[in-house]
Structure formats: C-alpha cells, structure tokens
DUF4381 domain-containing protein
Amino acid sequence: MNPALSQLHDIHLPARISWWPPAPGWWLLLAIVLLVTGILYAVHRLRNRNHWRRFALMELTRLREQHASQQSTHRAVVSELSILLRRVAVSRFPRAEVAALSGDAWLVFLDRGLGENAAFQSDAGCLLTSIPYRPEMAIDSGTLSALFALAERWLKKLPRGKK
C-alpha cells in the first residue's frame, strides 16, 4: 500500500445544524405574520364596534327609499323611523334611562345626542311623537326630508364603542 494513503484519516463532518435558534429570515417572517394578524384583528374589532351604526343607516336609507317610491304612507314611514331611533337608543344607552321616555322627554333626549338646541323639538322632530296618534294626513315632503336628515345626523353623532 502507498505510504501517503496510510496517513490519510477519515473525513470529519461538521456538527449538524440545529433548528434553534432560527435564521434571521424566519424571525422576520414571524414578525410580519404577527403584525398582519394584529392589524386584521384590530380592523375586525373596529368594524364590529360600529355594526349597529351601519345597520341603522342602512335601515334609514331603506325608509327613505320607501318614502321616495311611495310604497308606504307618511304615517308608516315616520312610525318606523321612530321605532328605529328607539331601538338604537335602547341598544346604545342604559335601558332604564331610555325605555320609559316618551313625548317631549324623548325629543329632549334625542336633542341631547345631537348637541343642538331643540332640533328634534322643531316641526320635523315633533312628528316622531305626534303622528302615531293622528289620523292619516299629508306631510310636507320638506318636513319629512328634514326629519330624515335629523335622524341621520343623530345616528352619526352617537359615540362609538359599548354602552
């Protein structure tokens, strides 16, 4: 045998690469995944916090369209609008504070939500409390439009978040 070959030793392989700690690229990927997950969670929570407002505004739009296409009487539209505002108020404020309100006290409560003086206590707002007890009558289109605008402003000005 060749003497040079007898002095050769076996090849020593390096130690196996451990799986921990991961390479910097994996840390970066983890950070990106956590960041995206956090952003999606925050967007989901923000979106769900105001689902009641979206629903109420969609319902208000439906009532406006119903009025515009004359599918319902003025009395029915105003009654449904009053019911919508009351449902939103009961869901957004303590039930004991809102549920018993009627007449002028209800209009004052709605005005407090707007932060304006007597906006709902005007001719348009008074329809909410008086029309259910009147016989069917024609209501000026401008008055009804003003009532819809008041209701929309009230819905948009309500505070976000929970009760």
User: Anything to note?
Assistant: Helices lie at 3-6, 24-49, 51-68, 74-92, 95-98, 103-114, 123-130, 141-157.
